[in-house]
Amino acid sequence: MHLKLRHSTRYTYDTPVRGIIQILRLTPRPHDAQHVIKWRIDVDQDATLKSSEDSFGNIVHTFWAEGPLETLTITVEGEVQTEDSNGVLRGTPERLPLGLFLRETRLTMPDDKIRDFAAKTAKSAPVLDALHALMGAIHKRMKFDTEATSVATTAAEAFKAKHGVCQDFAHVFISAARTLQIPARYVSGYLRESGGKEEYEAGHGWAEAWVPDLGWIGFDPANDTCPTDAYIRIACGLDYLDAGPVRGVRTGIATEKLDVEIQVTQGSNQ
Amino acid sequence: MGKAAFDEMNGFGGEVRAAYSQLKAWLDDTPAELLEQRRLEAEALFRRFGITFAVYGQKDAEERLIPFDLIPRVLTASEWKILEDGLTQRVQAINALINDLYGKAEILKAGIVPEELIFANEAFRPEMIGVKVPGGVPVPIAGIDIVRVDAEKFYVLEDNARTPSGVSYMLDNREATHLLFPDLMARSKVRPVERYPDELLAVLESLAPPSASSDPTIAVLTPGSYNSAFYEHSFLADKLGVELVEGRDLFVRDDIVYMRTTQGPKRVDVIYRRVDDDFLDPLTFRPDSMLGVPGLFSSYRAGNVTLANAVGTGIADDKAIYSYMPEIVKFYTGEEPMLHNVPTYRCREDEALKYVLDHLPELVVKEVHGSGGYGMLVGPASTKKEIAEFEKKLKSDPDNFIAQPTLALSTCPAFVDGGIAPRHVDLRPFVLTGSKGTRIVPGGLTRVAMKAGSLVVNSSQGGGTKDTWVVED
Amino acid sequence: MILASTANDLFWMARYVERAESIARTLAAAGRISAIPQVTGEETNEWSSALAAAAQLNAFVETGKEPNEIEVFNYLAFDESNPSSIKSCLTQARHNARSVRPALTTETWEAINTAYLDFKKYEKAGHSLRAHQEFLRWVLDVSLRVSGTAFRNMLRDERYWFSRLGFYIERADNTARIMDVKYHVLLPEHSEVGGSLDYYQWSSILRSVSALTAYHWVYRQSLKPWLIADLLILREEMPRSLASCYQNIAMFLDEIARAYGKQGPAQRAARTTHSRLRNTRTEDVFHKGLHEFLTEFLADNNKLGAVIAEQYNLA
Prior knowledge:
The structure holds three protein chains of three kinds.
Chain A: E1 2-27, E2 34-43, E3 47-53, E4 59-82, H1 112-122, H2 127-141, E5 143-144, H3 155-161, E6 163-164, H4 166-179, E7 184-191, E8 199-200, E9 204-211, E10 215-219, E11 231-237, H5 240-243, E12 246-251, E13 256-266
Parallel strand pairs in A: 5-6
Antiparallel strand pairs in A: 1-4, 1-12, 1-13, 2-4, 3-4, 7-9, 7-11, 8-13, 9-10
Helix pairs in contact in A: 1-4, 2-4, 3-4
Chain B: H1 21-29, H2 32-49, E1 68-76, H3 77-101, H4 106-109, H5 115-119, E2 141-148, E3 154-160, H6 167-180, H7 182-187, H8 196-206, E4 218-221, H9 230-240, E5 243-245, E6 250-253, E7 256-261, E8 264-267, E9 270-273, H10 296-301, E10 306-308, H11 319-322, H12 325-333, E11 340-341, E12 345-346, H13 350-358, E13 363-367, E14 377-378, H14 384-396, E15 401-405, E16 411-416, E17 419-428, E18 430-434, E19 437-440, E20 445-448, E21 464-471
Parallel strand pairs in B: 1-21, 3-11, 4-5, 4-9, 9-10
Antiparallel strand pairs in B: 2-3, 2-18, 6-7, 7-8, 12-15, 13-14, 13-15, 16-17, 17-20, 18-19, 20-21
Chain C: H1 4-34, H2 46-53, H3 57-63, H4 69-78, H5 86-99, H6 106-123, H7 129-153, H8 158-181, H9 183-186, H10 188-193, H11 196-208, H12 212-219, H13 225-233, H14 242-260, H15 265-278, H16 282-288, H17 290-311
């Protein structure tokens, strides 16, 4: 599928801020089922943008802008050509040992409820079946609700409350998979939903788990599906904190207003 | 309790050991009233200088003094030589371990240390994988805790590669002895420790990134004046002659770290940081940290600033990793380890766990990530009820614990309750490693359990400190 | 060049110690005047004036407490909830000092640290007149020791200059405030009717800035309100006068500018205020209106603090 993305984030400050520093994970790497045709990040203020790579292999941009700033807009525009690989990920640089993806993090720390849930759901099924079962069970159990959780909500909290956003679904999945000794990680990106919807207020997040002989496979428990050619994969990490699109700090006392516009459209050529 | 402990002055109850003959004569000549008077003087001195520390979780006791025991501990030059060689070897192995774990991970491939011990450990920082540490020395400052059980035998109790503290007490204690007992100092041939700050400065300079000038700008980064070890941070900045900064004094632009000065930004090359990994940079580690510097890690990855110690060195402090140290030393140095490890049962292993559960009243059980004497069980000093409670904890999460036999830590004469009595001690020498090798000032921080029979020397639990002498044989 | 936060801590350390001293002097003067029988019973309350001079009247009123000797003394001396109490000032000063410990001489650090440690003694001493006096004398002594050790031992570099700036800006603020609280008894028309009450008020003002003896040395005559204003505003030889404070402020800012090779808005602002004080006569002050004059001065002085902070990245 030919996908076009436009993602703009606009910050408005009630008093001008003195400076801003942000780390952006907003640039995709190609993999076998994702060809990056073109991609660019624009910042509408005088700023230095520096590109580097983190330990997970994600492309990272760090930028600094000197104030006083009243607004700041970051715009990402890109085009990718994707294929449906049934969620199987191939052709990414994998530099980290698999064992690392069994690590429990603050956001994915399992509690007894998640542990029991994982064990009961997976029973003694083969890894791939167990993961599908987990995805289905989480999707069934949890309700999608954009108001109920925040970026700091942990897997255990969301699981108990039985609702959350895609990020919470993914964290629960990751947490549960790791209790089964299956390496798992968080993935951030974009999704073009079927049904004509083109505008979104947030990016997407899902999970990947490692299956012997197959490698990393994507699971999107919020939609109960493995990623298809409607997904743009951007970054991965142990949890949302490693892979989320933006982490930033500003100097100055200001309240910020945030406007996010995301458009994922299907290209007409091809 | 087990067998009698080795006393560093009286051995196992025989004659006074040669190292202590002079000190013993002095003690015999010095009336207790004079010692008491000196003790009070020392306390007033320490309080006036503000040599205090804060105790976590204690209200209304914002700043406390660590008890200073007047009577120096004495090690001979030949004893020190054993320690010096052993510590040098061990710290070089620790540096090699850190570089390897974040580099090619050969020790894991060789199956010497189980990889799940590393990867599941929070002190292991995936962000560091592939990062070339400026200067190539991830652990320039190490504090290795040593205990002694008899005339010959020293054991390493714990490695501190994260941010070992206490060196200010080593220096202040020596200063105090000079002030309180000038005559005694004058006639004892004690090797000086005063050059520690110079050595540290040379080490930090030697590790500056290539972008720095020949006179690199160095700063000590502290979490702030409410931190328990703030005195030491301020002391070190003063002695090193460098700026003492908090996170808010630093900022990053274009991957370069600057400090805010009255004349604008000044580039910083080396940061001796006393802020934990988690709090260093809210853009990479804990997003809620107010103590760190946004963008610091990015600058570090880019090789523009040196952090001493490096990020992720705390993995070497883990007590489960500790149990593999003899093999680790052998793996990296190709030599037999010169310092002994205390025999350690890894509760994650079924057989060891079974043994530990059967022998709890004789063992010391510790949390693998714990420090400061918290979360541990000292079997022989615990009630049946305490042991039973600990057993539950241990069974529910055996991976989190190791156990060791209760060592008969050596004792040294201490001045307590108006008289001289033996008290258990340990020793933390400070090991400095720069681009030109490893140096250790002769001595270290001796911690002493002020309660009779107690083996807990941690200052957070009422332990005191002593001046530590290395004297010519 | 020093860390901006170091300059800031030194600036504020000196300010807080000077503020503690000023509050102590105000309390002493209030204690003295309220002990005089014919004065009490008037509608003016010395303790309220003391609160006003410390800029704490509104905050105190909000506590709902009675503005009597014990309550006001407690509030201005010991109350931790009052950020300008002597206790808060000394605690803050010690906190600033501790943060920049290496920038201070051992003697200065010890003077502040010892004061902090000894404070408890005085808190427990109770509310006898004697205990009050002893406490206030002790505060003056602390301030003297802090200032004196700095004056005698500190290297004359930016560390010293920034701390002196804090000291003189605070001092100017205090002097202006003390006068402003009682400006009405200093008005010339007042002297016509001036009875013994006014005499006590005048001497109280002078005592608050320890200038009673100086007055007699300078003018060699009985207390005249316009001369008091002249002494405290325009006389450079009087160390707590506004003119003297600005002579020093301008001088220390010049030192910094010379060391850094750069003049800025702070230097210009200080020079302007300083030359205005030099070119003003007492008549001009009263012509403009004493209260108006002081109000304007306080605002300018306050602004200079902000300009210094801005120019040297403090804050």
